[in-house]
Amino acid sequence: ADMNGTAIENFVCVIFNVSFMNCTWHVGRTATEDTQYFLYWRPSKKEDITECQNYIKDDYGRHTGCRFQNVTIENKNACFLVNGSRSGQNIQPYENSILLYEIEKLTPPLNVSVNCTEASRRCRILWQQPRTSHKKKSSCFKYEIVIENK
What does the UniProt keyword field contain (predicted)? Predict the structure, then answer.
């Protein structure tokens, strides 16, 4: 059987809340209901390859994503492999490498405080940089403040 078009498409991972990661994908264009996918990943070259333990499934029970916990970023270049089978035959594999720090969705800044004085008609706004699982210099962050008059 022709396996062209069975590889996954639109593979996307995002890290959120410091140590959680979701990876999702679309089934291949020619994937049938009995196509099943399996995600393997290696967080860094020094770590072992492991299979996803918490799959996201579609209405046919096909794996279309994975939820990870306790992910540490640092400067890791993680490797991902999604393979699988259809009707007992292997499908086209999909491989990708991702720099984990590039896919982190940062939390909001911490301890935001606003102190306004009527006499000077000025406000002082202070905050601390958001938590991340990797160390970043404070100069690496850019902030935007939107002030609305109410």
Answer: Glycoprotein, Membrane, Receptor, Signal, Transmembrane, Transmembrane helix
Q: Report whether 133 contacts 106 (CB < 8 A).
A: no
For residue 39, what are the β-bridge partners?
Answer: 82
pLDDT tens-digit readout, 6-17: 899 999 999 999
Question: Whole-angstrom Cα distance, residue 1 to residue 3?
Answer: 6
Model confidence pLDDT, tens digit, residues 69-87: 988 877 778 999 999 998 8
Please name the residue that has the structure tokens 């022709």: 2
Domains and CATH numbers, the chain: 9-102 (2.60.40.10), 110-140 (no CATH)
Q: pTM (2 decimals)? A: 0.80
For 88-126, b/e burial (b = at least 16 CB within 10 A) is eeebbebebebebbebbeeeeeeeeeeeeeeeeeeeeee
**Rounded to whole angstroms, how far apart are CA atoms 15 and 72?**
10
Tokens of 13: 């991972």
Which residues neighbour 78 within 8 Å (Cβ) at sequence distance 6 or greater?
Answer: 41, 42, 43, 44, 97, 98, 99, 100
